[in-house]
Amino acid sequence: MIFRAVLISSFLLTAGCLATVNSTVRSFAPVGLTDDTPVLAQINKQYRPPMFSIGADFDRHRNQSSGLGLVSHAQLEDYMNEELERLKTSSGVEGLPGRAYLFADTSFGARASADGNIYVPISVVLDLESTDELSALLAHELAHTIRGHSSSELFVAAQKKALLMSSMFADIRKSDAGVIRSSDMKTFEHVMGSLMVADGFINPGWTRLQEEEADKLGMDLLIASGRNPDAMFALLEKMERWEEANRQQQDDRDALMEKALGSLIQVEGKTELDNIVNGYLNQGATKLGAYLDGFNKDHETATTRYETLLAYTDRHYADTPAPAMETQRWNAIGRGPYSRTLQRSLELTDEARMALAQGDMQQAERLIKSAVTAETSTQNFVRQTFFELRETQGKSDSMKQNLKIGLDGTYPSLFLHIQAIQFKLHNGEEVNAADAAQLLAVFDAYGRPGEYYNQVLPVLISAGMDGQATLMLAECAIKYAGDGISCGEKSAEKAQANDFSYGNFMKSLM
User: Fold this and answer.
1) What pTM value is reported for the model?
2) Cα dihedral sign for 186, 190, 192, 196?
3) Is 71:103 a contact under the CB 8 Å cutoff?
4) How far apart are CA 47 and CA 147, in angstroms?
5) Which of 399, 388, 398 lies closest to 349, judged by CA?
6) Residue 308 pLDDT > 90, yes or no?
7) Does 137 score more than 70 pLDDT?
8) How many C-beta atoms surround the C-beta of residue 314 within 10 A?
9) Contacts of 380 (CB under 8 A, 6+ apart)
10) What's the CA gap between 429 and 404, in Å, rounded?
11) Can you say whether the dihedral through the CA atoms of 93, 94, 95, 100 is positive or negative?
12) How many CA atoms lie within 13 A of 422 on its CB side?
């Protein structure tokens, strides 16, 4: 008999309502599904990519460059994907794309992209107690992919919100001949970017109907794969703690954002900086207050969701056997020493970034040095943060060293690639057409993320590639029209008009 969890909470936290409940419900309706048979028996077994998919490899590269990016743990990644393939095979759905990856964030949750990739924070992995619980987590996310939930209005709106916010900070720059932003401003930009990326795990962008369907289909997949269905309910027990931990983390991060930007939205264009920041906050009808207050949950209560899944399971799987949960291999890999070392390193890195954001360079350096071990040395989250610290301190040799080590890692971010080119400019070296072409090739490989156009464009201009720069500026304007994304300026003179004092900027934040 299946064990019923007493502590109840939603499987995943849903996104802030950036559209009305009615519009989001209209964007997805489980047409044709009945309660007579399991969801898995009713769905089309030929996968159809959603309209917003870009390809699993491009999607991975984009997430590799979001926040602090991906975590490299080859053994655990192989194990996760072994389990994901087991679920895909059991589904009977042909052509399912995507792989499972570990993400460098301390939030709890998981998210599936429009391209079928599943991103799981390392913090979540260490809280799972069996392979069966891992399978339950992956099954729920895979269900979102199978049902094409990423085509909903709410999901798309959540992605646009994240892109707008990251682009806003990426475009606040001090220029040097239209190319180099101040190192301190870059530090601030990426600290804030790291704070905001967790929103994708805390608020992944599903409607309540989508979550309910993913709960049911996830249970179907879990049972079809031969795993213990009790794992889904065991996982639900953990969600109450995860939900509270996320809520506290969101409050802490929101408080830091409010401290950083709150004063700026109160002023009325007293300085050019005020106008710039207020302009970004107003783009796309998005303001800081709307961002922080936009987490109205479009989902049923945890109790209702649990009861719905319980009734569904009793109806279709009352006599389903519960095989023993697999724990030995999971404890050796998923919760093993290397996983714990990675998690501790990420926690120290997160603390270092908070110290960096608050101007405590000594504390930031102590923390990031503690995060570097033989096991974590090439992780992107470590080297990106270490580079930003050294950049703020003006230590060029160490900046170069951190870039080299980070780029030799498994999942280097696009940020590191761009900084490697801009490092040459910072040191007075010429950036030629070959350098710019190489950066453009990397930009292509990473799927041309919207928030990076305004960093690649000045490099092309500096290398004399005006024609390519014009085409890129037009492409960005067309792709992100109406989304509030700042693509950059074609001319160095116009880019230089955004120049402002970092010292004045930081004073205005305190």
Assistant:
1) 0.77
2) positive
3) yes
4) 9
5) 388
6) no
7) yes
8) 11
9) 64, 68, 69, 70, 72, 104, 406, 409, 411, 412, 413, 416
10) 17
11) positive
12) 25
Answer yes or no: is pLDDT of 366 > 50: yes
Residue 191 has pLDDT above 70, yes or no: no
- Structural contact between residues 429 and 455, judged by C-beta atoms closer than 8 angstroms: no
46 or 154: which carries more pLDDT confidence? 46
Q: How confident is the model at residue 454 (pLDDT cuts 50, 70, 90)?
A: confident
Handedness of CA 144, 152, 298, 204 (dihedral sign): positive
Alpha-carbon distance of 495 to 489, in angstroms, equals 5
* Alpha-carbon gap, residue 75 to 338, rounded angstroms: 10
Residue 366 burial (10 A CB sphere; 0-12, 13-18, 19+): middle
β-strand pairing of 111-112 with 100-103: unpaired
Query: Can you tell me the mean pLDDT for 174-187?
Result: 40
Burial class of residue 207, CB neighbours in 10 A (0-12, 13-18, 19+) = buried
Place of tokens 């460098």: 104
22 CB-contact burial (10 Å; exposed 0-12 / middle 13-18 / buried 19+)? exposed
- In the chain the first and final C-alpha atoms are separated, in Å, by 58
**120 contacts 101 by C-beta, under 8 angstroms:** yes
Of these ranges, 26-35, 117-126, 252-261, the one predicted with the greatest mean pLDDT is 117-126
CA dihedral 269, 272, 274, 277 (to 10 degrees): 130
Please write the tens of the pLDDT for every residue from 390-402.
988 989 999 999 9
In DSSP notation, 93-104 reads -BT----EEEES
Residue 175: pLDDT band (50, 70, 90) is very low
Cα 400–Cα 401–Cα 407 angle in degrees, nearest 5: 90
Distance from C-alpha of 130 to C-alpha of 115, rounded to nearest angstrom: 27
Lowest mean per-residue pLDDT among 17-21, 151-155, 202-206, 323-327: 17-21
Token duo for residue 417: 């690639």
Instruction: Give the length of the chain.
Output: 510
Residue 280 has pLDDT above 50, yes or no: no
